[in-house]
Amino acid sequence: MFDQFPEPARSQLAAAFDEGRTRPEWCFAEGQARLAYWAPFPGSEPVIVWQFDPGPDPVVAAGLLRRSLGAMGLTKIIHDISLKPGLIPVVDRTVEHEALTRAGFAMEVERLLLEWVAGTDLPSDPGRLTYHPARRMDRAEVLDLLIRISEGSLDYDTQVEVATAGAEREARWMYDDLMNRKAKPDWFVIGRLGDSPVGLVAPDDHSIAYIGVVPEHRGHGYVNDLLARGTRTLAKAGVERIVAATDVANAPTANAFLRGGYSEVGRLFRYYWRQS
Description:
The chain is of the alpha+beta class. Helices cover about 35% and strands about 30% of the residues. It is globular, with a radius of gyration of 19 Å.
């Protein structure tokens, strides 16, 4: 069903189809250009242009993007270009960058790609917080915490979604995303200081998928506690390479990862398309 794609994309698409994250009708080809759309969990709408191979001609690739967006009936979508440190899309992925901009995408945020590898010192846990598995908590309680974390967030995606869709809808989507991650039931936890929720950390099978602190507890270093919990959880489970990403502009979170033994391994350039 994905025969128009070469390996390894074909196998990746087949695996994503089995997980309910893509469909054959979300795949498009024109000339040598190929692309597919991807959803983070079964039943959700596509959120990203995935497996995008623009081929040699940015004009053809831009046309494919525009045609696929129309066929999918989407109102917004993102596309990520990941590069090693020091490289930029306009120079190092010229055809892909030109195709995206011709199709109406704009590069709006740059993210740090981070990695912790086994053998690196684990971040220390100060022991200030107690942790409670989010999956054992009432859904409304977790949603309320996600809404509070979104207030004043330095994360660009969160800012965009709150401004356009509202904090409640963003929280519901984030809840569904985090609950559908590949993770053991007790990995996604809420950190508390006494009876007061401080924040949360949600590891999945290979990454720190989400981390956040509520506004009233920011500025006291609790992101370090939460990151230590998430990293130690995955390391104890035998994960040898833990990945994470955060906006370059989100200095508090970026610095927490660097203090916690993570190193920068690349940059992610996120392009946005919205229906005009």
